[in-house]
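Title: Comparing notes on inverse folding

I've been comparing how different people in this forum approach sequence design from structure. To keep things fair, I'm posting one structure and asking everyone to reply with a full sequence. Here's the target:
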């Protein structure tokens, strides 16, 4: 779940941010062909064979090029229909990476998703392997990292901005209340996305339900009768939607840093902005215990002091190295990115102190890591993918509703306030070619679903703990509570208690007791 200052795009670093049966489930009442005919057309996708090969050609940046050079990793491309209601039409290519199981005879494949929506997942499986090298999960499963449709190495690849546009900060300003969307800009943005991506039609088929269908095809192609899955942040929405659409094909789901399936876009934005304000205040309070805290010594005044430091950046950005500057929106994005984990609070405090002294290096570093900006000035397409996927997942509002919500968000999270009157704005997706396809609530009252495991952190800044309890209740599954201040807790966070519980569930299908709790020290 990406949550930037646009905490509102994911479930979204933004934060806003999603029918039954196997083959026949991919049809709808509006399809021209019968479900039997459609199933026959889909069968060729379910029965395709993957050609695994070295991963180097799949790298699209220097970081992945170095990572994918590992000859233990195997990569391939899977073909899927662009439109599952027209499986005889255009197709898409889904790129994936496999880390083979260490144990020789694996239980099966473990599909993974790192969140977003829009984060490339091919590098996620190697990250799990590196962070949990001794886990039984690596012994018993082939780890599968997937670049969902439109993302990373998958094609077509969503592309809405040039790197120069990203570097200019224009779009980021629109998500941090410095600038507003006009009606004409929403049309221009949609058209630019279509032209740069190469297909207006594709923009209608990159929602969470499309990605869930791709997962079911891949499950079969990998030779698994049932799906085993680990999803983080937005990946919990993807996993829950898969469970709704294909409950009989589920073996095990681990959903870490969960999203509330009952909460519509407005409610979730409120939850998330409340969460990041709480985390900001906790970070600020920890700072006030230091003798040189840039936010002063009064925990009750940290928001006000922060605004005094960063609001001048609107008019006067500060140098940030390599000829760059730190703007207000960059600073906000950097702080929000750092709030994802208590371990990053010292970097936030250092960054605020630097701004106070006329520099922006630390906060621009947090900003760049979140937005996946590389040393050569290029960016991944994660931002575009987040926005486009959310156009198909999130509820849309009238200009009046969007403007009111924007003001509400600033009131809930005042550390994000520009200090200036907010202009009226519009929903950035209002010119999209189709209406949203996810629907709320989702993944509720599912019949025949085996036990699932939701992992929820009590102080999660962008997926408040209550959201986790709601997801576990909706799926009628198990809940593992983790005491801590960070987003997500499993497999890549280094918590032995959590990782042992997750491994026992995935390998042995043994869920932790309802009273089970883990803690981050």
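Reply #1:
Here's my take.
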């Amino acid at each position: 779940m990406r949550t930037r200052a646009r905490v509102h795009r994911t479930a979204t670093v933004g934060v806003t941010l999603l029918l039954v049966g196997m083959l026949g489930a991919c049809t709808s009442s509006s399809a021209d062909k019968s479900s039997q005919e459609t199933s026959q057309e889909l069968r060729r996708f379910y029965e395709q064979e993957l050609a695994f090969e070295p991963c180097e050609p799949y790298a699209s940046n220097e970081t992945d090029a170095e990572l994918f050079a590992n000859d233990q990793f195997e990569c391939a491309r899977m073909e899927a229909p662009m439109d599952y209601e027209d499986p005889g039409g255009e197709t898409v290519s889904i790129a994936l990476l496999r880390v083979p199981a260490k144990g020789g005879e694996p239980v099966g494949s473990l599909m993974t998703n790192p969140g977003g929506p829009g984060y490339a997942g091919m590098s996620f499986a190697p990250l799990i392997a590196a962070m949990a090298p001794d886990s039984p999960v690596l012994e018993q499963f082939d780890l599968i990292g997937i670049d969902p449709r439109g993302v990373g190495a998958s094609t077509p690849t969503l592309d809405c901005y040039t790197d120069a546009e990203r570097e200019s900060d224009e779009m980021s300003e629109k998500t941090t209340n410095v600038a507003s969307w006009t009606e004409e800009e929403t049309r221009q943005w949609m058209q630019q996305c279509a032209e740069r991506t190469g297909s207006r039609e594709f923009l209608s088929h990159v929602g969470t339900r499309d990605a869930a269908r791709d997962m079911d095809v891949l499950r079969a192609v990998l030779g698994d009768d049932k799906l085993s899955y680990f999803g983080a942040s937005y990946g919990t929405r993807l996993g829950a939607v898969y469970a709704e659409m294909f409950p009989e094909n589920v073996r095990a789901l681990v959903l870490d840093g969960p999203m509330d399936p009952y909460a519509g876009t407005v409610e979730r934005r409120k939850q998330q902005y409340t969460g990041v304000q709480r985390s900001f205040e906790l970070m600020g309070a920890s700072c006030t215990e230091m003798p040189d805290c840039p936010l002063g010594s009064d925990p009750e005044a940290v928001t006000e002091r922060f605004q005094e430091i960063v609001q001048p950046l609107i008019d006067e950005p500060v140098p940030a190295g390599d000829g760059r500057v730190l703007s207000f929106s960059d600073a906000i994005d950097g702080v929000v990115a750092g709030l994802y984990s208590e371990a990053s609070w010292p970097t936030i405090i250092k960054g605020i102190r630097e701004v106070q002294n006329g520099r922006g290096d630390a906060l621009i570093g947090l900003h760049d890591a979140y937005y996946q900006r590389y040393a050569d000035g290029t960016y991944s397409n994660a931002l575009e993918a987040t926005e486009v996927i959310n156009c198909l997942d999130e509820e849309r509002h009238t200009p009046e509703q969007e403007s009111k919500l924007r003001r509400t968000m600033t009131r809930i999270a005042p550390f994000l306030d520009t200090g200036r009157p907010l202009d009226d704005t519009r929903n950035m997706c209002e010119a999209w070619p189709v209406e949203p396809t996810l629907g709320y609530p989702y993944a509720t009252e599912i019949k025949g679903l085996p036990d699932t495991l939701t992992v929820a952190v009590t102080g999660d800044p962008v997926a408040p703990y209550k959201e986790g309890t709601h997801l576990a209740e909706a799926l009628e599954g198990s809940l593992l509570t983790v005491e801590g201040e960070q987003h997500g807790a499993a497999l890549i966070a280094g918590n032995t208690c959590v990782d042992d519980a997750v491994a026992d569930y995935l390998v042995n299908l043994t869920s932790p007791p309802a009273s089970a709790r883990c803690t981050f020290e």
